[in-house]
Backbone:
């Protein structure tokens, strides 16, 4: 089967750059949802621990449980508790969900500062604080998410102002309802790099840590390096003559006599089919031939092993999508090795 190599030096390089922006490793909350963006939840968690990262963000309780040994703090974005844990915090995304959390649960309140996806509105904040108090939950933080941090529009500034209002209101409400001092966070990768003077309690960083951030030129960041490379191994080779055709529908036409080989990486493993329509070439300029099959694909090569991609942002352009989708499409069954 195809396999993944994770480059530890590149990962640590990215964490250096990120911790420099947050001004402290302790303020980096590494986002590990969806199998650590396809990199492998346990592999990335163990490297993060080795580096000294103490905080993680995941989607589910199950993910949080499986990485408890690696972190001091884990924020669950969209789930309710299964068992109580001192390390795990749960997100309140909706006023009506507050009574689903068992008494004593540590929670963080998500505020909708303009994305209109999840979170309570600023006008609902007082209600939320009251309900949280009545439910006996432990409110530790208030946070938000930006919808346009990676785009050159003024929306970023507008949302930032809205969150500032939410922070002020939170402080007043916290003392009114007798909660302790609250923490605040709003930055994902793009927002962290856009913020000229980061002063919040933590940043939730995903794609930058994996080195596949794609920003407009004016917002571009220097020095981040992709962590994941995908290799495939050869199933078979053959010599083809001019005008023979390869694969389903005979789409892959051969224009001169050559050797082609079939490799064990297909759409069932996460190789997006649309890459074939857009003339995909590997980082070494080796051409994909014909359609991508479920478990394999054919390249103009006779190598035993082939580097399929080493930068998800590049292959994402062939697939007309974002690096996030390329990475999270990679199946968890693919073996992952740290080097
Ligand atoms: C996924 C996610 C992040 C991380 O975003 P990146 O762009 O990968 O840094 C941060 N916060 C929330 C709420 C998320 O869902």
Residues:
């Amino acid at each position: 089967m195809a396999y993944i190599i994770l480059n530890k030096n590149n990962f640590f390089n990215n964490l250096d750059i990120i911790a420099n922006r947050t001004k402290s490793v302790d303020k980096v909350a590494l986002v590990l949802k969806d199998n650590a963006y396809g990199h492998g939840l346990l592999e990335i968690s163990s490297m993060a621990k080795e580096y000294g990262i103490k905080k993680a963000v995941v989607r589910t309780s199950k993910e949080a449980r499986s990485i408890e040994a690696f972190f001091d703090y884990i924020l669950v974005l969209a789930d309710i508790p299964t068992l109580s844990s001192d390390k795990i915090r749960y997100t309140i995304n909706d006023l009506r969900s507050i009574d689903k959390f068992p008494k004593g649960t540590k929670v963080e309140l998500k505020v909708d500062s303009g994305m209109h996806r999840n979170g309570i509105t600023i006008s609902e904040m007082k209600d939320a604080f009251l309900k949280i108090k009545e439910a006996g939950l432990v409110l530790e933080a208030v946070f938000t998410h930006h919808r346009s941090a990676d785009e050159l529009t003024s929306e970023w500034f507008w949302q930032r102002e809205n969150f500032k209002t939410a922070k002020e209101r939170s402080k007043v409400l916290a003392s009114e309802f007798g909660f302790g001092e609250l923490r605040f966070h709003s930055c994902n990768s793009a927002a962290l790099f856009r913020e000229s003077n980061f002063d919040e309690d933590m940043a939730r960083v995903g794609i930058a840590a994996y080195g596949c951030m794609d920003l407009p030129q004016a917002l571009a960041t220097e020095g981040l390096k992709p962590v994941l490379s995908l290799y495939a191994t050869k199933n078979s080779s053959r010599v083809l003559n001019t005008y023979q055709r390869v694969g389903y529908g005979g789409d892959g036409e051969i224009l001169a006599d050559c050797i082609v080989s079939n490799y064990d990486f297909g759409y069932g493993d996460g190789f997006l089919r649309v890459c074939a329509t857009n003339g995909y070439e590997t980082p070494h300029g080796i051409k994909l031939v014909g359609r991508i099959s479920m478990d394999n694909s054919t390249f103009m090569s006779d190598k035993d092993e082939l580097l399929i991609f080493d930068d998800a942002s590049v292959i994402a352009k062939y697939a007309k999508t974002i690096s996030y989708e390329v990475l999270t499409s990679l199946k968890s069954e693919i073996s992952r090795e740290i080097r």
The pocket of pyridoxal-5'-phosphate is lined by residues 31, 33, 77, 145, 188-190, 204-208 (CB under 6 Å). The chain has ten helices and 17 strands. The chain has a mean pLDDT of 96. The first helix runs from residue 8 to 22.
